[in-house]
Specification:
Layout (H helix, E strand, L loop, with lengths): L4 E5 L3 H13 L3 E5 L2 H10 L4 E5 L7 H10 L5 E6 L4 H9 L4 E4 L4 H30 L11 H13 L6 E4 L6 H11 L7 E5 L5 H9 E2 L11 E2 L1 H4 L4 E5 L6 H13 L1 E2 L8 E2 L3 E6 L3 H6 L5 H7 L2 E4 L9 H17 L5 E2 L1 H9 L5 H15 L6 E2 L6 H10 L9 H15 L4 H8 L3 H10 L5
Parallel strand pairs: 1-2, 1-3, 3-4, 4-5, 6-13, 6-14, 7-10, 10-13, 15-16
Antiparallel strand pairs: 8-9, 11-12
Helix pairs in contact: 2-3, 3-4, 5-13, 13-15, 17-18, 18-19
The structure holds adenosine-5'-triphosphate (ATP) and magnesium ion.
C-alpha cells in the first residue's frame, strides 16, 4: 500500500523540519511548503491525504489557504494549527471545511492521533466516492443492483431467455431477489405490456390456492356466488409467477401439470375448457430434488417447470455486491425518510463485509432502512451506532474464521469456540481434541469469555 501523503505548511523552518522527521518516522510521506501560495500550487498538482497548516504566514495565511481550498475541488483533510489568540480563525477554518484544528503547544501524541483520524475520514470519503461513482455508472437492470460475476451472468441469461416461452425455475435462499428477477424476466420479454401475475403457493390453504389459480364457476361450491377468473386467465398473454412452488400440494401439482402440458384447463365447477397463453416463472427456496425424494413433489412437474434453471447465489457468496447494494438502499431510504446521510463509515462497511446475511439482500435492505429511520436529521455518516445492537453483537459469533490480523488471544478463543461447536459443546470431547484437561478448558472458557 502507498504511504499516506501529508503536506506541511509553515514558514518556520525549524518547526517544519522537526515535524517532518516525526511524521516520516511514522511512515508517512511528507512534503513541505512555506506559505499558502506554495501549498496551493502543490495541492493543485497532486493529492495529499492530509494538509497540516500553520495560520500566521507571509503571502497567504492558513485561513486564506483554507478559503481557497474550499472554493476549489481539492480534496485534502486540513488540520489547522493555531495559537490560542487566533482561535476565532480556527473556528472559521472548520466552517470552511477544515477537518480539525490543533492549538500550538500540542503534543506529538495529539498530533498523530488527529492525523490518524483525518486519514480514516479521507479513506471513508474516498471509498464512498468510489461507491457513488459505481452506483451512478451502474444502471440497475430492472431494479437489480449487483456487479458480481454471478449477478452479471444471471442478467445476461435473463436477456437471452426472456422471449422464449420455456418455464424458468428461480432457486435461491429467502431474500436473494427471486421475485425481482422474475419481474425482470417479464420486463425484458415481449410480454411486458401484458400482465405479470404473482401468486404465493405457501400463503394460501390448498383449496383456496386452486380456486385462485383456476377460478371457479358460479355455484361451484358453497359461497361461490358468482364466477371468478383465476390467475391463469388473468395472466393470459403475460407471465405467471408461482412463488414458493415447493409448498404446493400434490393434487394441485397434478392440475398444474395438466395446464402446462395441454395449455388449457377448466374453472373449478366448469366444463368449458379455457385456453391460455402464459409464460410460467416459478421460484423456490427449498430443494425440489429433495422434495421429490421425499414424495412431496412430482418429478414430472419438476422437469416441466425447470426448463431454464436459474440459481441466485446467497449474498455471502458474492460479497462484492454488499457495498454497492448498501449505497443503493441508503439512497433509497434517504429519499423516503427525508434524511441526508451521504457516507457509510468504514467500520460499518467492515461489519457488513464480515456478516453472514442469512436473510440476504432483504436483510441488508431492512438494516439500512432501520439505520436511516433512527438517524437524526443532521446525521451525515451512517455509523455503528445506527445499527441494531443485535446486529453488531452477532458479528463475531457469525464469523468462525481465523483471520490475518487477529491477536493470539482472539485466535485461541476462536479455535476453542470452533472445537466446542464441532463436538456440540461436549467439554470432555473438546478437551481431548485440544489436548488440555477439562479444568484448563473451563478456565479458558471463562477467561476468554466464550459463549455458546
Ligand atoms: N440485487 C438486488 N438489487 C436490488 N434489490 C434487491 C436485490 N436483491 C434483492 N433485492 C431487494 O430485496 C428484497 C427481497 O427480494 P425478493 O422479495 O425478490 O426476494 P425473494 O428471493 O423473493 O425472497 P423470499 O424467498 O423470501 O420470497 C426486495 O425488496 C428486493 O427489491
Ligand atoms: Mg419472494
Amino acid at each position: 500500500m502507498a504511504k499516506p501523503k501529508i503536506l506541511l505548511v509553515d514558514d518556520e523552518k525549524k518547526i517544519k523540519e522537526t515535524l517532518k522527521i516525526v511524521l516520516e518516522n511514522e511512515g508517512y510521506e511528507v512534503q513541505t511548503a512555506s506559505n499558502g501560495v506554495e501549498a496551493l500550487n502543490l495541492l493543485e498538482d497532486e493529492y495529499f491525504d492530509v494538509t497540516l497548516t500553520d495560520n500566521r504566514m507571509p503571502e497567504m495565511n492558513g485561513l486564506e489557504l483554507m478559503r481557497e481550498i474550499s472554493k476549489s475541488d481539492i480534496k485534502t483533510a486540513v488540520i489547522f494549527i493555531t495559537a490560542y489568540a487566533d482561535i476565532k480563525d480556527a473556528v472559521e477554518a472548520i466552517k470552511l471545511g477544515a477537518y480539525n484544528y490543533l492549538e500550538k503547544n500540542f503534543t506529538t501524541e495529539e498530533l498523530l492521533s488527529v492525523i490518524k483520524e483525518a486519514l480514516e475520514k479521507q479513506k471513508m470519503i474516498e471509498k464512498n466516492n468510489i461507491l457513488k461513482k459505481k452506483l451512478k455508472n451502474h444502471s440497475p437492470f430492472h431494479g437489480i443492483v449487483g456487479e458480481s460475476k454471478k449477478i452479471k451472468e444471471i442478467k445476461n441469461l435473463i436477456c437471452k431467455i426472456a422471449d422464449s416461452k420455456a418455464s424458468v425455475l428461480l432457486m435461491g435462499e429467502s431474500g436473494t431477489g427471486k421475485e425481482l428477477f422474475a419481474r425482470a424476466i417479464h420486463q425484458c420479454s415481449q410480454r411486458r405490456n401484458k400482465p405479470f401475475v404473482a401468486i404465493n403457493c405457501a400463503a394460501l390453504p390448498q383449496t383456496l390456492l386452486e380456486s385462485e389459480l383456476f377460478g371457479y364457476e358460479k355455484g361451484a361450491f358453497t359461497g361461490a356466488l358468482k364466477q371468478k377468473k383465476g390467475k391463469f386467465e388473468l395472466a393470459n398473454g403475460g407471465t405467471l409467477f408461482l412463488d414458493e412452488i415447493g409448498e404446493m400440494n400434490l393434487e394441485t401439482q397434478s392440475k398444474l401439470l395438466r395446464v402446462l402440458q395441454e395449455k388449457e384447463y377448466e374453472r373449478v365447477g366448469g366444463l368449458k375448457p379455457i385456453k391460455v397463453d402464459i409464460r410460467v416463472v416459478a421460484a423456490t427456496n427449498v430443494d425440489l430434488k429433495e422434495a421429490i425424494k421425499q414424495g412431496r413433489f412430482r418429478e414430472d412437474l419438476y422437469y416441466r417447470i425447470n426448463v431454464i434453471p436459474i440459481e441466485i447465489p446467497p449474498l455471502r457468496e458474492r460479497k462484492e455486491d454488499i457495498p454497492i447494494l448498501a449505497e443503493y438502499f441508503l439512497k433509497m431510504f434517504n429519499r423516503e425518510y427525508d434524511k441526508s446521510i451521504d457516507l457509510i463509515s468504514m467500520e460499518v462497511l467492515d461489519i457488513f463485509m464480515e456478516y453472514e446475511w442469512r436473510g440476504n439482500a432483504r436483510e441488508l435492505k431492512n438494516i439500512i432502512e432501520s439505520a436511516v429511520a433512527v438517524a437524526s436529521p443532521d446525521d451525515k455518516i451512517l455509523g455503528p451506532q445506527h445499527l441494531q445492537a443485535h446486529f453488531v453483537n452477532t458479528k463475531r459469533k457469525n464469523s468462525n474464521e481465523i483471520k490475518d490480523g487477529m491477536s493470539l488471544a482472539e485466535i485461541e478463543k476462536q479455535y476453542i469456540y470452533n472445537t466446542l461447536k464441532k463436538v456440540n459443546w461436549n467439554k470432555s470431547k473438546a478437551a481431548k481434541i485440544l489436548n488440555i484437561n477439562r479444568q484448563t478448558l473451563y478456565n479458558k472458557i471463562k477467561s476468554l469469555n466464550i459463549k455458546k
